[in-house]
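re: that complex we talked abt at group meeting.

here r the seqs, copy pasted straight from the sheet so there may be weird spacing, ignore it
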Amino acid sequence: MPDDLYRAMLRIRMVEEEIAKRYDEQEMRCPVHLSIGQEAVAVGVCAALRPDDLIVSTHRCHAHYLAKGGNLQRMIAELYGKAAGCCGGRGGSMHLFDDEAGVLCSIPIVASAVPIGVGAALAIKNTPGDDRIVVIFCGDAVVEQGVFHEAVMFARLKNLPVVFVIENNLYSVYSLINDRQTWQLIYQINFVASRIEPDAIKIYKDMKRWIAKVRETNKPPIIVFRTYRFHEHVGPKQDFSDRMGAVEAIVNDWEYGKSRDIVMVSEIQKEIDEAFEFAKEAPFP
Amino acid sequence: MTAMTCAQAIEKALYDAMKEDQNVMVMGLGVNDPKHVFGTTADLVENFGTDRAIETPCSEAAMTGVAIGAALMGKRPVLVHQRVEFALLSMEQIINNAAKIDYITCGKHSCPIVIRLIIGRGWGQGPTHSQSLEVLFAHIPGLTVLVPYDANSHYHLMREAIRLNEPVIFFEHRWLHGMKGKIHDRKGEYSFRPKVIKPGCDITLVSWGYGVHEALRVATALEAGGISVEVVAVQSLNPLLTGAIVESSIKTGRILIIETGPVPFGISAELVCHIARPLLKVRRIGATNFIPSTRSKIEYAYPSVHSICVVALSMLDKLHTVEANKITTACHEMLDKTPSDVPDNSFTGPF
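got the structure back, here u go
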């Protein structure tokens, strides 16, 4: 895997693990929805975007925010509820945004950010000379919400420069996808879906293809990536469940990191430690 | 200016705003159809094209989100629903997103959208096409709620609504659309304060929207019996500016508030609170408008035992007394070292 993609994934993994480790200190007093296990999608997708392209995300926004270039210190400060946080402490983990990095907004209510991303794409389309793309990150439960379908249809009707990226991690809190959806729903004919393993290079190459197509045709695809989260829906604890027998192959790929490239690990850890120090020292609003 | 109907006044306001600012856009079901939302969007698509006058699908929630997303990027969308009830499908977007964006981002993002809602009445509209529901929106911090009552206020409040960088809910009424009035030239900002549109001294009638015309007819009828009636037209429900109303209540001593919807928990309840405040020892205390995530502000976000006691003491004229000190001590003893962001010490997160 190219070093920069690997480094981006490792960095996200290490940030999330640090959050999980320090959560017991009771200084990050907000719900945290960790992206451990889902790094490849965030990194592969964002690597295919320009810095000025936009993304919108959900409550599980840490990986998307970091992969897109969101400021780490402002993210950790936000978790600590400090004024230096990206939302000045008002939003917490679920509302991360960074205008300079093109992270337009993260909205925790499932599907709530989807039409907002479509609206941003509408504004882009109606601005001469603006050829940015909007990527809308969603979870698998998004297809259970009506507004998702409304927004997709509108984006297609108006040929908007938007890509819908669904991360299917099989679970909605504790509820398995088979108990929530007719399986075919996520692969409906109107959806252009790809079942892709969580491999950042493959995702990156695929996304490059899709995004070039969108910039050319303005026909918004829905791309479904299969992935998995290793921690509970919200909180620092691990919550490993393989009821579908689908995860073992993925798990082995995810044990990278600690034994590889000690220099890279220590550089990243230094950056992370500095960010946590910054957050701890920063004043409250 | 010549007299025109309230519908024409809205159309003129939209046209003038769209002419002045390229970023203004109008969207909704019926915007470009032959009826043009009761004439209020006539000629917009011909003059400004389909990118700025958008006929939308029947997807109220998504269209509201789309308007918000476009607003985040610098557009100034005016979204219209032909009935108040259609907006109910989009309440999540309005309350959780439109009303909160400015707060959550510390003002870095704003949401300059206008949502036009039309109150239905008559011609068999029935229970789900004739509700007012202003109070639902007026209660939400972060929303500006405007209620024009004549052609002039329809024009100027719409221009203001579009100019504001905040989300505005703009209430219209089917029975006002056809009502004619003169539009006056505006010098500077149009004030949201209530207007004493008819001075009097025996009794004050207060209303908004279509209720204002009802009030004027009542005034005429009462005058036939020699009663002098003062009529006050409220133009903004949020912010609710009550100065003129309280003054009038002192002047006449009698206030009759006319709601367009059912009375319980209506706008009149809030007005009565303001009118009664100088006269009775009735106070209210509650949470702040927006609850921050950070724990450093949380203790001020909700009323506490101590802050409630302070209000009680002020009502008893016992602030800054020896008893007040004792009570403060009692409050502090009651707090058992529990941080302000948990119900008790056993709670450690995460949800």
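couple things i noticed - Residues 3-22 of chain A form the longest helix (20 residues). DSSP finds nine helices and seven strands in chain A.
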